[in-house]
Amino acid sequence: MKNPYKIALVVLISICWLSPELWAEPRNMRIGVFGVHQAGGDGADCQGLVKGLRESGYQVDIFTNMKPLSLARFDLVYLSDMQRPGRVHENWRKDLQRYVKSGGSVLQTWHHHLSLGVGSGVKRIFDSRRMAVVPGHPAIDGIADFNATFKDHIIEKVGPSGTPLLKNDAGDIVAAAGKLGRGKVISTGLALAMPNGRSSQPPKGNDLKLLQAFLKWLEPEVTQKQRLSAFLQKPELEISVDSLSTVAGFPTTFTVTAAFPGGKSVTVECPDAEVNASPADTKMPEWVRSFVISVPTARTAKVEKTLTILARSGDQRKEGKVLLNIINQTPPEKEMRGVWLHVGNDRHPTKVMPELKRLGLNTAMLRIAGGTAAFFASKVQPDIQDPLAPDGDWLEVASREARANGISLHPYVNNCVVEGRTSEKTLAKLRDAGRLQVGRNGRIINWFCPSQEVNLTAMEAIMLEIATRYDVDGVQYDFIRYNNSDGCYDDYCRALFEKETGHKVANWPEDLNKPPLVDEWTEFRCRRISAIVERISTKIRQQAPKIKISAAVFRDWPDCRKAVGQDWVRWCKEGWLDFVCPMNYTLNDELFAKRTEIHRDALPAGFPVAQGIGIASGRGTMTAPAQVALQISLARKFGAIGFVGFAYKPKHTATLFQPLEEWLGE
Ligand SMILES: [Zn+2]
Q1: How far, in Å, is the centroid of ligand 1 from the Cα of 488?
Q2: Which of 375, 545, 552, 601 shows the greatest Cβ crowding within 10 Å of its Cβ?
């Protein structure tokens, strides 16, 4: 036993012998996490979750298509937040159900609406972390009562095959497990791996322990071969897109997967395109193969054409089509080409403004204040967080550098939100003074109550200060809305609602969220935010008539009226804005185009819109200059005056725009 390898082997065997749970871990399971952002949906990003699972030894891939051949690759499909899944096909629920019945496993967390006979999420519970284990089920083996990492969760409606696993303080069920056909399902409203419910982080502590217990139980009981032969019984051809837009001059690619059960040597042909077989997936049978199809496009092309894809295996064949739309759209005159920009030491104006100029951009929207904070030498905000303080003034430097480089500067303010932009001390003061919003169940929402004169005065003062004291081209409203559908239910808002509508509300606030008052409540909330815009814009027009006024607004018109009280089309019609920037952030180009068209149709003819493009946003990060070019072209197609990328990041912004320099032109 002198050989070190042998010693190592013995040590390893001993460890395994001593800790059976170590070698029993289901690390061979192949997990597919549905990438909501990659599919163009809204919800928490899954990158942190995927990273955490990989660090724990799981084999994990992100997938973006719920069609059978995409599902077939995985032993377990993980749906981490499905409130708005984006581009899923019409029958995705049925296909997922068939996948489970054939022996696949599904874990769904946080926002989840598929029952699969086990459980689906029905109602969000705020500020409740304590979870009690319902003993007896193997999926919860070894787990004791615990506190969840995220303060909120969603409770379950348990289906006929579901067994409760966890309950909250009120005794509502928060997780259930069950079987459907030969497969297994766990549904839980816990935002596992999402400490704030919005973006994922590698799961830790109790979250990780629970997740590992769930995954262990979810390990399939049937072999992959059994599952595939039950799930894939006929030839299938899956194309990653139905239609494809691309900018003339940029090549475009998509993937095709073909399956011919029991067949051999699958081939794919596509005229006018380059077809390359992807490396064989050794975990899949040889009758399933994927191909990458690249379509070159000429710089001067402007066409819509249909590509035909033909897959064969022996005498079996399967055909599919993709509609290719090559866009070649000339820019509007003096196109607005901008980025949103934050204050920070790594993005000093002396560096950033020349860089923007070099990249062919001409506009900067600079976040300069929010809540009670100012990132410049403000005389009206109590919390100065200027990196150049106490001697310098970031806004003064930014405006000088912007002028010197021909950049149009539009500082913006996070108007209604307070949390995260203010000092703890000021936040406590505002809370004590009753100036913050009150939500359901009386909890405080750290946003300004829009019915209090003292708050309106404060919001007005900072916008006016920027417009009158500094050499800037414009000012922009941001966070000019409610946080969500909750609030504000304090005495100020109650008195104003009853006065404006003439209704005495018997059960405040419950009656506001159902007929007959619900619509009046939506209108009331819209009026509160609109009143802020009207007041401030009117003052700016009087005191600084040359200043262009704009707003960063929600992309999902008109749903944002009800969702957050943001009636922005009205602001444009009333003349309170000079242009508007919908935050149209998505990696899904079709969705981007659809919204751009809706914005154009909702606004008065010719009202200037600069489309917000999510280059590095909470909805994902763009990596290809071609995608930026495509969204710019789509904005042009629907009559935008330009675009604003959210948000500038040192290095990243240059990697996207540098290659577009020639394409953007003058
Ligand atoms: Zn209020």
Answers
A1: 4
A2: 375
